[in-house]
Amino acid sequence: MTDKIKRRAIESAMRDGTILGMLWIVTFSVSIVMLKSIGNGGGLILSLAVTVLTLSSPVLAYKLAVKHRNSERNGAIGYGEAWMHIFVMYLCAILLSSIIQFIFYAYIDPHIFGNLIPAFAKLAAESGLGTNDIEIFTQLFTSMEKMSAAEIVMSQLSGHVTRSIILTTFIAIAVKKNPENNI
Question: Residue 156: which residues within 8 A CB-CB, separation 6 or more?
Answer without folding.
Answer: 98, 101
